[in-house]
Each structure stands twice: as C-alpha cells, then as structure tokens.
Amino acid sequence: MTADTTQPHIGQSAATTHEGILAWVDEVAELTQPDRVHWCTGSDEEWTELTDALVASGTFTRLNADKKPNSFHAASDPTDVARVEDRTFICSVDEKDCGPTNNWMDPQEMKAIMTDLYRGCMRGRTMYVVPFVMGHLEADSPMFGVEITDSAYVVASMRVMARMGSNVLRRMEEVGATFVPALHSVGMPLVDGRADVSWPCNDTKYIVQFPEERMIWSFGSGYGGNALLGKKCYALRIASVMARDEGWLAEHMLILKLTSPEGVRKYIAAAFPSACGKTNLAMLAPTIPGWKVETLGDDIAWMRIGDDGRLYAVNPEFGFFGVAPGTNELTNPNAMRTIDIGNSVFTNVALTDDGDVWWEGLENTPAHATSWKGEDWTPDSDELSSHPNSRYCTPIKQCPILAPEYDDPRGVPIDAILFGGRRKTTVPLVTEARDWTHGTFMGATLSSETTAAAVGQVGVVRRDPMAMLPFIGYNAGDYFNHWITVGKDNDAAKLPKIFYVNWFRRDEDGGFLWPGFGENSRVLKWVVERMEGQAEAVETPIGYVPTPGSLDTDGLDMTEEELAQALAVDVEEWKAEIPQITEWFEKFGENLPAVLWTELDGLKARLGA
Ligand code: SAT
Ligand code: MN
C-alpha cells in the first residue's frame, strides 16, 4: 500500500533476504497472478491504510469513535459464517495417520485440485504476505509462519490475533528460520470487469492441512477459523502433530490464574468446545469475596514439561476472537472493558444508528438497528440482529485482568486441567479424576451438544475429545495415546490434576441448574481446595464429586434439592453412556490405547453395568 512496500509486480524487489520465503512468495504469485504484492509490516500506518481501504471498499464500517475508537464492523456473506468441518481435510501421506475423525484426501490429489483453484485466483487483487509468530518471538524456538492472503480483512484480523510484521520477518532472516507456509485465498478473482463485493468468497471451500510438510492451504472462505491460519489450522492442527513428534501438547484450552483470599496462586487450563463459554471463564469475575482471576488466554494452550517436571503453558495468540451474542456486563464485564478500548473488529453483529455495535444479550436494546444481514431490525423483528456465531476480534493487551505472566515466553506451570462440555443431563457440575489416565479417559470421552461455531445442526450430542474433535491434526487414537504417554513419561505428582465440569445441566423444566458465569468461581474454589487437601468429596463410579457442603454456595439463590441435582451421579444415565462410549472407542480400532478400554471396564464394573 505504501510505495516502499508495494511491488508493482512480482519478484522484482526483494522485500526479504530470507530465500525460502522469497521463493515461496514468487511461486505463489506466479500461480495466483495478483496485481500487487504487499509485504505486511504490522505498523500503525499500515493498519490505518488497510482499514481505510476496507472502509472504502464497503467491507468495514467505521464505528463511532466516542463508542469504540479505531474499531470496525464487518458483515460476511450470509453463507460464510463459521468453520466448515466437512470441507476441512488432514492430507497425511498415509490415510491411517488422519484417523476416523478427520476428512482425508491423498495429498497429491488435493494439491492438484487446489492448484487448479488457486490458478489466477488473485487476479485484480493484492497479495499480502504476513510474517507471523505463534507464541513469543523470544521463545527458545519461536514458532514462525507466513500467511499469504488476498484478503485485507484477514490481514487486519491477523494483526490483532498474532504477533506479526517486520520485526518477525527480521528475526526469521537472522536465524534463517523454518516456517509454516499458510496460503489463503477468498477465491474470487476480479476478472472480466467483475466488480468486487464487500465479502468476497467462493461456494467451493477447502481448509487443508498437510501434516508431514507442516503446510496449510485454505480456499474460498474469509471466516476466522477458516482464514486466520495461525489460529486453528497452525496452533492446533499442525501444532498438535509437531507436539506429538516432540513430546508436548497443543490444546484447545484457555489459561487463567486464580488467587485465593489467602494468596494461594494456581494456574488452570480448561478445554471446552467452541462457543461453550471459554472466553467468559478465562475472564471470569468471581462472585465470591477475595478471589481473583487473571487471564492468560481464552482459546489455545501450548504446554511443555519444564526442567522442574511441571507442565508449562503459553498462549500462542495475541488477541481474542470471542462469540459476541450473550456477552454483556453480567456474563463477561472484562470482555466489555477489553472491547471498549477499541482497536477491534466486529463481524456479523448488528450496527446501531449511532454507529455502535449490538447483539442479542447485550444491555440497552436499541429501538432500531441494522442487522448482520444489512436489514432493518427492531426488538419486534422475528429474525436475530446478529448471527449466533458473530465475533469480536480484540487485542489481548487491552484485557483489564491480563496476568503479567502472559508476556513470559516460558509460560506458567499448570496446576489443574478442566475438561467441559455442554450437556443437559448426566454429567455433574464437577468431577475430579482419580489420576492422569482416568483424566485422559474423561477427556477422550468428553461429549457436548453442537453449537453455531461450526456449520451444521446445533444441539446434537457428539463426542468431542478434549474439545479437540475438529482440531486434532492426526489419528485421534494416537492422540489419546500421546496423552497417556505424557502421563507415563513424567512424574505424576507434578502433573496437573484433571477435572470434568458441566455448567449446562438442566432440570425437568429445561432450566439451567447452575447459574454459571461469575458463580463458576465457586467450582474453581472447590478445585483449588481439593488440590490443597481441604475440600471434601464423595467417591462415585465416575470420580470424585463434591459433598453438598464442600461447595461454597453462600449467598447463592439455590435450593439444596437443586444443588443435589446439579451434583448427582445418576447410575442409569451413566449406564446409558456405556454403549455410546464403546461405539466411540471402537472407531479407533488398534490405535486406541488399551488402558482406555481398561478405564471403561472399570467404569462399567463400578456402575454394575
Ligand atoms: O471459529 S474459530 O475457529 O475461529 C473459533 C472457534 O470455533 O473456537
Ligand atoms: Mn476455539
């Protein structure tokens, strides 16, 4: 965009001395035929130019600076609103390495198909080169990537979500870094006088990981998880493969720091499927006096065993990509403070007449707004103002409760891991695993009702192991085995304790049994007290569950009966899970670690099933 970084045509002035990057950029430009190549610097000037251009092209609407400074509204094509799991592929060389939970195609076949799609796909557009690092640039071995994209919306979003730009590129040059090449196109060349649209995309979509080559190819979608390739594609799918090979863990987990009134400090990582409240838990405002939560991450944790034998977690991201609907002063006041500062992009929410954003669940319902589909909206409208998977994209540094350790490249030692799903029945509020292997069994059998974060039916119960179902970059049976191995190879006493939570259990009338949100601090308190050997629990067939008196319910408007229901382990309900778990495990054949069958046998025996 600026004269010094824009090349009128390809491969003429080298914007980098990194030969690998240069060669790849030239190769992609040759194939995709963009009008211009822009090497992204990540500077404020570049942000201004990009966002001005996005406003001019109609992709962005600038929000009222008195409400949300330096912030923008975008509305996607109505067909491009979520991750597309049926178009997402793990193209391992051997189909067995993809496993039964992913889509597979032979890598050569996929490359042939996509090369045809990519041919000339950037005509009339700018090709942006985004050097980025997931995690810290000062990490022992920084995890570099380069995303090539023809979407300015993606560049703006990547600048919020990842550390990117010139300083990253300079470091890559200095060390001759290897990097994950991540190619993205919206798949809408501007040829034959075709006018651009505010949200270019293509009905044909492919989100493809090549695990052996550590490479990502994405085509046809501009939506976050499909297009911001540092996030799910790199930091989970590709990184999970690296983690398997190198003995660490890449997980779909938030990271938070919890401090008790006595100053006891614990770090907790928690895995929940998309759109199940991870961001809200990460920024929790405790309702119980004296307890404090600080945030380190809301979506992804990379965890490695440190020299002291403990499991250290870093958040590889630089921003939050949170679900907007339902976010408000009550459910997540800290997210509200984060976005108030500005510098954010809001996608598929409503635009108010005074130039602010609004969504279902937010306070101050406007009398009139423009819906995410660009239509007039009033509180009487039959349609939602915002798509259920609409998002805010905002810098993590703006979070008022960001833990200072966030900036430590070594990460923080994790004390407890929570697995959680969205289940109306069966799963109690909180259960403590007996040990790491039992915790791995809990994670491997985690189940949840589907949400709007992925295209498809909402509310169907499916197994979502470790909340990683759409993100495991290899055979999920091998992934379970990797978890078991981490437990075996390390000092069990130093590994985090594992818990299973369910905020979403309902009573017979369909009402939530547990108030959730800030009240979840009561469950975190119990978790801490268990680790400190203070809180009581009953041993049940599925693990340790709080005795009614051990959970702090002071000041909570909840009957004893309701609490008992929230904590109940109903043997009949659990017996009904057994055939489902059996069927789930059978999918993995000999790749399923035998100890997980042993765990299931133990559960059956304890249930008398
Ligand atoms: O849709 S994203 O992948 O960007 C977010 C999520 O589903 O967790
Ligand atoms: Mn997520």
TrEMBL record:
Domain Phosphoenolpyruvate carboxykinase C-terminal P-loop residue range list: 248-606
One BP annotation, GO: oxaloacetate metabolic process
User: What pathway is this protein a component of?
Assistant: Carbohydrate biosynthesis; gluconeogenesis
In its keyword annotation, does this UniProt entry include Ribonucleoprotein? no
MF terms in GO: GTP binding; manganese ion binding; phosphoenolpyruvate carboxykinase (GTP) activity
* Domain of life from the UniProt record: Bacteria
CDD domains per the UniProt record, alphabetical: PEPCK_GTP (cd00819)
Q: How is the cofactor bound?
A: Binds 1 Mn(2+) ion per subunit.
Give the keywords, sorted: Cytoplasm, Decarboxylase, Gluconeogenesis, GTP-binding, Lyase, Manganese, Metal-binding, Nucleotide-binding
Catalyzed reactions: oxaloacetate + GTP = phosphoenolpyruvate + GDP + CO2
EC number(s) recorded for this UniProt protein = 4.1.1.32
Write out the catalytic residues in the record: C276
Query: InterPro entries, per this entry?
Result: PEP_carboxykin_GTP_CS (IPR018091), PEP_carboxykinase_GTP (IPR008209), PEP_carboxykinase_GTP_C (IPR035077), PEP_carboxykinase_GTP_N (IPR035078)
Any idea which positions bind Mn(2+)? K232, H252, D299
Subunit composition and interactions: Monomer.
Entry similarity comment: Belongs to the phosphoenolpyruvate carboxykinase [GTP] family.
What does the record give as the function of this protein? Answer: Catalyzes the conversion of oxaloacetate (OAA) to phosphoenolpyruvate (PEP), the rate-limiting step in the metabolic pathway that produces glucose from lactate and other precursors derived from the citric acid cycle.
PANTHER family documented for this protein: PHOSPHOENOLPYRUVATE CARBOXYKINASE, PHOSPHOENOLPYRUVATE CARBOXYKINASE [GTP]-RELATED
Q: What is this protein called?
A: Phosphoenolpyruvate carboxykinase [GTP]
Q: Which species does the entry assign this protein to?
A: Nocardioides panacis
